[in-house]
Design a protein that fits this description.
13% strand; globular; Arc Repressor Mutant, subunit A; 3 domains; three-stranded antiparallel sheet; seven-stranded mixed sheet
Length: 486
């Protein structure tokens, strides 16, 4: 049946940087507002592209992405429609808020709550693809009798696959002798600390950013390093303050997360990266570069890693594939000079012998076949949409009570609340797997001016994100009677 009125969409007022995001978010907003009701037929891709003056392929890509998310449905020879399975959104949010998903933290095998500080959505793992790859790897290692201990540096197949990826995607020019496979980035950090503790005996300081990844800090302390914190600003690590620290301390290394600073999500600009490398050369210290989620950069091409730039001789680059699939996939890698890699291999022989040859072979096969790249591309679109929905929802619900700088990438938001922090907020945030103890420590500059949380969006659907933000608003802003306490 023909619709009596033509549906019009306008993108001019939207602030997103890409046409894809403008259109996707506009359609979602129109569905949430009720303007695009269930079963509403959307304009054809060519018609909408002509009306908006954009490329038809962009419209097609948006329709396909929103269909994958469940917002739209495509019917052969009929067109694209708002999904008929969308329930009443308010009722859905209330139902979600009442479920154990939102009231009870996810529990790990150890019985501890799993903190959502930017973890992947394990529901999106291509299990059948993994199953085939593992089966093939198991047959191969059994057939060629390679089930024994292997190279502590990691399988040659995975190192070659990583070498190709690092060269093509990350601008890193190296060879397989400079790559070591580890069980996730945390093992890489531990090995780096252990090696430096033995090699840099006259230097007892590790510099970390003002707010930094807690397990890394604990690792350095466990190796008897003195931890000194360098200031952060809107551009990340303050290299001028670092120069002051270097003038008065015997620094063995600087630990940094330059791609998406943890926890603030800031990307370090190129001038700061070059200055950091200049200081490394001048003061002869190592840089431990934790590149934990390089794959998920949305608004522009990622800035090349520190190790790919000039004067990077003393960079220890640590990466991980865990963020692409799931934290339980313990596959990471270290790229560094031979002196560091060889020392790490000696320590690996003491604690691990040779990890998991079957997993390494399976991952190598998926990388060589392009499957990991395809999965990453798919996840990047989904997580980008979830990021934008999370930012928009925080701003619509909390209005001027929150400040968010939309991150260029990553899997979490750094949200400032313009509210006075109350002790009971810690328990509320724990319900949603948000670690408040670290966020509200004494290192915050002025607790009276507001407080921060790191809000992981990648593992949540749009509806789950909206329900959690609504619950936070009720807890932080509304009093018991439901009136606004601002």
């Amino acid at each position: 049946m023909r619709q009596p009125w033509k549906i019009r969409l306008h993108l001019e007022e939207r602030e997103e940087k890409t046409i894809f995001l403008k259109l996707a978010n506009q359609i979602i907003q129109e569905i949430l507002s009720g303007r695009l009701a269930q079963a509403t037929r959307l304009p054809g891709s060519r018609t909408l592209a002509d009306e908006l003056g954009i490329n038809r392929k962009t419209v097609q890509a948006v329709y396909e992405d929103l269909e994958a998310q469940g917002w739209l449905i495509s019917k052969p020879r009929q067109g694209t429609f708002v999904s008929e399975d969308l329930p009443d959104l308010n009722a859905k949010l209330e139902a979600l808020a009442a479920t154990s998903l939102l009231q009870t933290p996810a529990i790990s095998a150890t019985g501890k709550a799993i903190k959502n500080d930017g973890i992947p959505d394990t529901r999106l793992i291509p299990y059948e693809l993994f199953s085939r790859a593992y089966r093939s790897a198991l047959i191969q290692v059994t057939r060629y009798q390679t089930m024994g201990y292997g190279d502590p540096q990691g399988s040659i197949e995975l190192r070659e696959a990583l070498l190709n990826m690092l060269s093509m995607e990350r601008f890193i020019q190296t060879n397989i002798a400079h790559i070591c496979i580890v069980r996730g980035s945390q093992m890489g950090i531990f090995l780096a600390a252990r090696v430096l503790a033995k090699q840099q005996v006259e230097r007892d300081v590790i510099v970390v950013e003002q707010w930094s990844y807690p397990p890394a800090v604990e690792t350095f302390l466990s190796h008897h390093f003195q931890v000194v914190r360098v200031r952060l600003d809107q551009y990340g690590l303050d290299t001028d303050h670092l120069a002051e620290i270097l003038a008065t301390h015997a620094v063995a290394a600087v630990y940094t997360t330059p791609h998406h600073q943890y926890p603030t999500t800031v990307s370090m600009p190129m001038d700061r990266r070059l200055k950091l490398l200049e200081l490394s050369k001048a003061f002869d210290f190592y840089i431990i570069e934790d590149d934990y989620d390089h794959e998920f950069h949305y608004d522009s091409r990622p800035i090349p890693p520190l190790i790919s730039l000039p004067m990077a001789d003393k960079v220890i680059h640590i990466g991980s594939l865990s963020k692409v699939f799931a934290p339980s996939l313990r596959v990471g890698y270290v790229v560094a000079d031979l002196n560091i890699i060889q020392a790490m291999c000696q320590d690996i022989l003491l604690i691990d012998k040779h990890g998991n040859s079957i997993t390494e072979l399976a991952i190598a096969t998926l990388m060589q076949q392009g499957e990991i790249k395809r999965h990453t591309r798919k996840m990047r679109k989904i997580y980008q949409l979830r990021r934008d929905v999370a930012v928009l929802t925080f701003q619509q619900i909390f209005r001027d009570l929150v400040e968010i700088s939309t991150p260029a990438g990553g899997m979490a938001l750094w949200v400032k609340f313009n509210l006075v922090y109350q002790p009971e907020y810690a328990e509320i945030l724990t319900q949603f797997n948000i670690d408040s103890e670290y966020r509200f420590g004494a290192t915050l500059p002025d607790i009276r001016s507001g407080f921060y949380i790191r809000f992981g969006f990648a593992a949540l659907t749009e509806a789950e994100t909206t329900a959690i933000i609504q619950q936070l608003y009720r807890a932080f802003v509304l009093d018991a009677s439901g009136s606004d306490s601002k």
